[in-house]
Specification:
Radius of gyration: 17 Å
Shape: globular
Number of strands: 5
Bound molecules: shikimate-3-phosphate
Order of helices and strands: HEHEHHHEHEHHEH
Strand content: 5-15%
Largest sheet: 5 strands, parallel
Distance between the termini: 8 Å
Number of helices: 9
Strand order of the largest sheet: 2-3-1-4-5
Oligomer: single chain
Length: about 190
Amino acid sequence: MGSDLWQRRSIILIGFMGSGKTTVGRQLSRRLQLPVEDTDKLIEQRQGKEISAIFAEEGEEFFRGLETGLLEEIRDRERASILSVGGGLPLRPQNRSLLKQCGTVIYLRTRPETVYKRVKADTSRPLLQCRDPLTRIREMLAQRQEIYESCADIMVDTDEMSVEEIADRVAKEISDRHWRAAEDRGKKGD
Ligand code: S3P
């Protein structure tokens, strides 16, 4: 792969709701001097309403379609960014292959109890507005875990780590991968 193509590869953070994608994304953006974006925020801006209103008025399938359209746009453009994506975005097989085309995929893995602690007072996530959110989180994570793992290039277990530690780890893993790829290109005389 030519070096110009490396410059175009984004860093994408996936993981369950409350896994810290948005905050880690901001930290990484400062460290790596790349712009940061968030699919939920972009969708809210473009639709002019919050995710919970989109779910309530248009339904989940409509929202999933918006996520796919956005990923196609991101795949087709020239510049790289740090991109945090909604927790359900990797569920569509089409989105998983789009993620791969956009760049390096990082899975921030989190236990259900950690997620629960972080999101229990938050009403912005329609899928967790129910009587027993912890059970819901456990069920959803059990269904999604394998999907997240199947599209990740790098996985980080985040439960015992601060945002800074997670960002450090991701930045190091990315830089190691870049060096390894550069070495491989060197060996092939690329
Ligand atoms: C969702 C996760 C949310 C948001 C929507 C659906 C999901 O994003 O896209 O509420 O299906 O897991 P965050 O993961 O950023 O909370």
